Amino acid sequence: MDESLLLSNGDGLDYGNKKPFLASSMKFALKFTMWVIFIAWASIIFLYPSEFVYGLYQKFIQATTGTVYGITGPVFLAFSAPILVIAFLAIAYLIISGEEQFKGKETSKRPCFQLWTLPVIVDGPFGVVSAAELIGIVLFSVYIIWAVYAYTVKNLDILSKFQLTFEEKSYLLLELTGLRFGLIGLFCLAFLFLPVARGSVLLRLIDIPFEHATRYHVWLGHLTMLIFTLHGLFYIVAWAMQGRLLREILEWKNIGVANLAGVISLAAGLFMWVTSLPPVRKQNFELFFYTHQLYIVFVLFLALHVGDFIFSIAAGGIFLFILDRFLRFCQSRRTVNVISATCLPCGTVELVVSKPANLKYNALSFIFLQVRELSWLQWHPFSVSSSPLDGKYHVSILFKVLGEWTAKLRENILNGPKEDPQIEQQPLQPHSNLSVSVEGPYGHESPYHLMKPCLPRNVLVVWAVKKSDELPLLHSFDMKSICPFFSDLMNLEIQTYVTRESEPPLEEGNISQSVSSFGCPVGNRCGISVLVYYINPFSISSWWYKGLLLFACMVVSPIIFGGVVVGLWHIWERKTSAREVYEDDDEQKIDILPGNEPRASKESSQDYVATSNTIRYGRRPDFGEIFGCKAEQWGHVDVGVIVCGPPTLQTSVAKECRSQSLKRKCNHPIFHFHSHSFDL
């Protein structure tokens, strides 16, 4: 039972083969180089407030300002170039890694703790926080405290060098403090856009899925806007005390900081910040969504406010986000066919859409869906309910009607064309009321959350629903499609809890029929489908104008150079699709030869699931009992726990994982917590 299931050669999935020495050496060299660059970059930012590092930085500026790039070049090279170089090296690293999704390293059979899966804080403003996340929070907190302290000492030292009155010192201290907070905010902004790039190679490199990285963007967003707000408040108080508030706010300097542009940028940021707070966001998601598009105004006027060389501090992360946004825009322009849509009596909707064969996804991947009849701007995330091993040309999702957008989508499906049950094998056509675009998929690079080259033999699914009308969803559970190579080798157990019914209804056992469905044939396959250097040869001196040019270069360069790459990619994709169609036709000819055994029927796998399912009414899952029972039953192994649900459920499961792992006996397992949340 402890042996790896996927490392055997009998199933054709030989994930245990070692990589060639040259590839392994190149991967090691790239990883080592990326770590060195990242540590050096983070160290410069962290130690920048110190006299020693700031002195070295000034010497570097003086030695390199004689080039055509002026002061912008060295600032960009010090603070933005490192993250771009890491992203470039990450692409090479991922290409060399290829399709090696299961990490091919040797892993110990003894269970061990992992920083990313050990919940440390389970109840608080940050939600469930792992040990690795806590380290990151502590490092950022230490940096903020250290930077404020160091800059306060510098400010007091500057004041001591001038013979000023107490009132004049107060004005100057307020303005200097506001200036320092602005610089700290720029360093935080350098990290803010990195987690929100959905297809970022940096996230793929460290195997953090986008839905997890989004919470880091939220944390950094609160921190950045708090610091920028303090930056503005210190200046406003100082100007108001001096009686020149209105004149300073409306000032737009050519040489120096343009105050009015900063006011506009801060106002846009405050609108985004306030509407992103949980009470506002939950009550009116559309308000949050549309006001968050003000990030364009926020970034543009920030560049106008500080000029090109100061904006270069945060330009690297912003450029990677712009590049990601351009690529996502190119991918999402095409519409896909709706193969089928089904509205179940419990309120759940199943949508099956087409995809190209070369689009790969893993278990627990998710996609963003746009329905143009509902909105041209809104994209909503949904987890993928189909197995990546079940079919090459479709992907399916299941979702409940919980908001205005999903309610409109369900109504659109109900008002669409219906299937006639009296006509057998009627040709189905795409639903004319739906124009669907898909972006993604996103999620873990590794198919299994334990990050080890093996498939667990024992799987326990604990599913809690409110009413029994949701139980028919399990009838779509097909073990043969999920694990076609080894479904008979897995020990699958399902525990279902119906929390708001004390006993099964009289019609228990009957499968509820869908009330509406439509579709189109699967065979109709329709696809989802260098930063420009800023040179100043014209003696332009206006800070705001040079900031505008830098921002324009960051936007235009992905469109020009990325457009060429995307065009070549589409040409290659069409050739690949044509070749796959030819290969699939050959496979279909082979399948009809005499002697070929048919696949196992779906009904047989459903019978297997039914015998492994226990339904309990009128109670909620007792995680202490469940974890304790499995700890005794499974023994000294690693157990991955994947939870999807509201924050209260995640907190309860995380507490139990932490308690069981820290207080375990020597022969008990270590539980690794994984949250699968879509609160985006």
TrEMBL record:
TM helices/strands, residue ranges: 28-48, 68-96, 126-151, 172-196, 216-240, 252-274, 294-323, 548-572
SUPFAM superfamilies registered for this protein in UniProt: Riboflavin synthase domain-like
Annotated membrane topology: Multi-pass membrane protein
InterPro entries to which the protein is assigned, alphabetical: Cyt_b245_heavy_chain, FAD-bd_8, FAD-bd_FR_type, Fe3_Rdtase_TM_dom, Fe_red_NAD-bd_6, FNR_nucleotide-bd, RBOH/FRE, Riboflavin_synthase-like_b-brl
Pfam family, one: Ferric_reduct
Keywords: FAD, Flavoprotein, Membrane, Oxidoreductase, Transmembrane, Transmembrane helix
CDD domains: NOX_Duox_like_FAD_NADP (cd06186)
Any GO CC annotation of this UniProt entry: plasma membrane
Keyword Hydrolase: no
Protein name (record): Ferric reduction oxidase 6
Organism annotation: Actinidia rufa
